[in-house]
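Chapter summary example: a protein plus magnesium ion.
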Amino acid sequence: MSTLRFKALETLPFKDFRRDNSVEVPAKLSELFCQNVFSEETMREYLTKEAFQSILDAMKKGSKIQRHIADQVAVAMKDWAMSKGVTHYTHWFQPLTGSTAEKHDSFFTPIEGGRAIERFSGNLLIQQEPDASSFPNGGIRNTFEARGYTAWDPTSPAFIMGTTLCIPSIFISYTGETLDYKAPLLRALNAVDEAATNVMQYFDKNVTKVTPTLGWEQEYFLVDSALYQSRPDLVLTGKTLLGHSPAKGQQLDDHYFGSIPTRVMNFMKELEIECMKLGIPVTTRHNEVAPNQFELAPMFEEVNVAVDHNSLLMDIMARIAHRHHFHILFHEKPFAGVNGSGKHNNWSLATDTGENLLSPGKNPKKNLQFLTFFVNTIKAVHEYADLLRASISSASNDHRLGANEAPPAIISVFIGSQLFRVLEELEKVTEGKLSPDEKTDLKLNVVGKIPEILLDNTDRNRTSPFAFTGNKFEIRAVGSSANCAESMTVMNTIAAKQLGDFKKEVDALIETGLKKDEAIFNVLREYIKQCKNIMFEGDGYSDDWAKEAKKRGLNNLKTTPEALKQEMDKKFVDLYEEMGIFTHREVEARNEIKLEKYSTVIDIEARVLSDIARNHIIPSALNYQNRLIENVKGLKEIFGDKEFKTLAKEQMSLITNISENISKIKLGVEGLMKAREAAKAVSDSQKQAENYCNKVKPLFDGIREASDDLEMMVDDELWPMTKYREMLFTK
Ligand code: ADP
Ligand code: MG
């Protein structure tokens, strides 16, 4: 008897404590909002006027915080935190490992005379020194200083987790190279602020700051924690490497928007309470397409805060799931045969005058403003599509992109047929000066019509990786396990670059004597012409699109190594340098880290698959085969040589079949191990990743097929691996 699986199944939900973890939600959830956040409100209460103003300036204008102010803030933070039972503090940052990092230090400080006090100073608030060598650095460590430090990011508020005060921070090497997700993001946000604010001077001189906004939608799976523990592949790789799909999958679509199981509901309720306290404004929750798959989405926020909130959320989701005896899976494709998980990133630009720049306005002037940002965004994606593709690449997201359930790896833009027609009209604008008639026509019939159009524009193309959804763009190909910062850094960098170029081009035309509006129309017309090939309104999942895209000259970078190779294109490296986001060395280091991570992931999967196949699958199959052999022998004994042949026919064919599959697995594993050794020996990271992708990964399939076949043959009682139907349908 394969004990782990059955022990896990026994502890299952039938036990009451797993279900009765009921959670009371206070009637007014809003009263909990930001309870554990050093929010503006709290700061106003705890800080002197001077310190408060200084923090606000740092948050809104990026101005420097002076030492004596930092001291005041530190003391205020400590007092506030201690009033809530906090004993420790940590710089909370997002290294390139993909998860968040913390190193807790106590406020407790011994002083002379055997006494002690609680102390926290400006020094400790501003800068700390974790051991940089234990985080990925892509070789920066070898060539530069080994040490790194974390630095307080005052634009994202401090918060309390348990009994620890967490201070959002960036992570950089001593020589100034960024070693995390946030530092480059902050640079990109500054760049787009500057570029968009400049462009806004054409439309509204009151605008002095433009802040990008992000609303993410997080998908995830929940699996009972006992069942999770019983699957070594889930534990070690975050996904199942084997497993026959259940008779019932998602064919009936009955899970989507169906009622949420009680146990899951309790998890969600507790999560929402925690989110409220931490200031994460979650609003929607529902089931997703696949069984045991769910989604959570907040109100959108400033990108920087939204990114922190998503990282924080993933962290607390995992903790709260455990309290409800669930394990949460953020892997993009934990189960074959059912949908994977993504993380849609809704992106827009907001002004300090309260406008959404991707929202059409009430008059033609506002709509020209809308069209300007709208077309420039499309142009940015057109120019830098491959960079956007690279920013969402990972071994786990490769399973999802292009698998008929998520957008393909081809980057295209969906804007809806009505807006598409508006752009076609704009494409016809006369070159140079416009006649008064044309101007009126444009105002009334093209630009003036946009709000009406959008009101009844219910187009929702779910197959596009980059879709306009009424007042924002939605990047739909981001993986569920990704840190949003990566795609957001690219998105804001390319928008900044594009808006900067646009400003130059329009100004140049104004110089030649064109009116401002004429100049804008002229530049937009050219952009639309150039970008047409990336606009696609049809079914992104279809094979026809892949063919059509090829004709249009769009790249289809199906795998991570392909995407990462493209990332090192001179055009992109230059862009990063020009925009002040990364130095050449930093781009290289990050590219290297991602390649290494890719190879490591596939390597681990290969080893885990081989171990399971050899140590669990083959022995179980042999075990069952022995039973069959006993049976056949018995039949022979009882019925004699002749008659037994008819009677034991099916058993004998099963015996042969099992042997064939065992041999497929054995040879498959031997081949896989050889390929893996060969890939491991390649020293160039790009080539190594390509090796893992093209020579190692494809060998998984044969082993899995043989094992999944055996799963259908072997007595259920002898099968060692917890089955899909058990993991996916237990509530
Ligand atoms: P759906 O796209 O599913 O129909 P919504 O339009 O309400 O739903 O928005 C989905 C997501 O878009 C939410 O997470 C929301 O926070 C985000 N969102 C809405 N407006 C903006 C905006 N201006 N900037 C960024 N994200 C936004
Ligand atoms: Mg959506």
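Key point: The radius of gyration is 29 Å.
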